[in-house]
Specification:
five-stranded antiparallel beta sheet; 14 helices; 16 strands
């Protein structure tokens, strides 16, 4: 009997995530788009966030904190102002969901230092599941002694301020399609060639009930996305804010009110790719339904402020004044970078309108900065 070769020449080629999903589907049947997203992003072996460093020019996408330091600085000022409106609790938990490379928090903490009592009161918690990003965050934010959490269920008791920038867009969505009589769910199935393909399930009045009444009569073929994970998290945060004073600041690209349309997309190296192509190697995200988030948070008894356009919100917090102050001290080459970054964040033709800002707060707290008085529920 011969011995099996050892080392790289004899090593079995690891099974790709797509191959495992096909095997699962052939055994258990087609899966929802939400189940596909969850596996593609968070599978512990082949998932995108388990093995990729997604951010920056070398990654697959760039977020606002990487575009301009002013973004994180203004959020730091917003948090300090909110803390004072809360009665200056000490300690107060500062939580970021999906902190990326820690850039936003690094800029936030620098700005927070201008209010020394606020900076001293802060205790930092990071909700992050990616081991790759946790290592980067730990290195960058070591001085703040961050504590890592896996999900919202681990949030500590006490007053808190939550930041979720481009977090809700990565939560799994289900896709429904209008049939002849009712709505059906779009599923991910295995095709004859051993790959993955979209397929429509059976029409059902139960699925139709998940679509907002104004959209149920849409023409056949219309697609509507629902985010059960996003709604569950918003409701959980709303309930949390009834037990302890605080707020959650949500910043993301999306729409308000609810609207029909397929927004789920895959991005690799800053370019769109097919959603089902090589699961685990591309970022997946969908536009956020802010109306659904607001409804879920209100069901959890939170007050809701916004959404407002990101450009409008940043201007209200003083983005242009901060830009002018930085440019006055910057070299000519730096000025162009500074101005270009802020314009990208606030220009309606870029991120200024598509990205929106919403705040969930404990009832009874003053309206947060950047939101109009009486904005609850708008």
């Amino acid at each position: 009997m011969g011995t099996a070769p050892s080392g790289p020449r004899g090593a079995l080629k690891p099974e790709r995530l797509g191959e495992r999903l096909v095997r699962r589907i052939r055994t258990e049947g087609p899966i929802s788009v939400a189940a596909f997203m969850a596996a593609a992003l968070h599978d512990p072996v082949g998932g995108y966030y388990a093995r990729q460093h997604p951010l920056g020019r070398e990654g697959d996408f760039v977020t606002a904190p990487e575009i301009s330091q002013i973004f994180g600085e203004l959020i730091g000022v917003w948090c300090a102002d909110l803390w004072q409106r809360m009665g200056s609790p000490d300690p107060v938990e500062l939580v970021e969901f999906g902190p990326g490379r820690g850039t936003l928090l690094a800029d936030l903490l620098r700005a927070a230092a201008t209010v020394p009592a606020f900076r001293r009161a802060l205790r930092l918690s990071l909700v992050e599941t990616s081991p790759v990003l946790r290592a980067v965050q730990q290195e960058r934010l070591a001085a703040a002694e961050p504590r890592f959490l896996c999900d919202a269920a681990e949030l500590p008791d006490g007053p808190l301020i939550i930041i979720a920038n481009e977090f809700f867009d990565a939560l799994p969505v289900r896709q429904l399609v209008r049939g002849e009589a009712d709505w059906a769910e779009i599923l991910v199935a295995a095709d004859a060639g051993g790959g993955l393909a979209f397929a429509a399930g059976r029409e059902s009045p139960v699925l139709s009930a998940l679509v907002p009444p104004l959209l149920r009569g849409s023409p056949p073929g219309t697609i509507f996305e629902i985010g059960p994970a996003a709604a569950a998290l918003a409701a959980s945060l709303g309930e949390r804010l009834t037990r302890w004073p605080g707020a959650a600041l949500l910043i993301d690209y999306g729409y308000f009110p609810s609207a029909a349309g397929a927004t789920l997309a895959a991005l690799r190296r800053h370019r769109p790719v097919a959603i089902l192509d090589e699961p685990g190697t591309a970022d997946l995200s969908a536009h956020v339904d802010f109306a659904a988030i607001a409804a879920a948070a209100k069901a959890g008894s939170a007050a809701v402020h916004g959404p407002v356009a990101q450009g409008e919100w940043l201007r209200a917090l003083g983005a242009e004044a901060r830009l002018a102050a930085l440019m006055a001290r910057a070299a000519p080459a730096q000025r162009a970078v500074l101005e270009g970054g802020v314009r990208r964040l606030i220009d309606p033709a870029q991120m200024g309108t598509l990205f929106k800002v919403m705040a969930l707060t404990s009832r009874g707290l003053p309206v947060p900065a950047g939101f109009a008085t009486g904005s609850d529920g708008q």
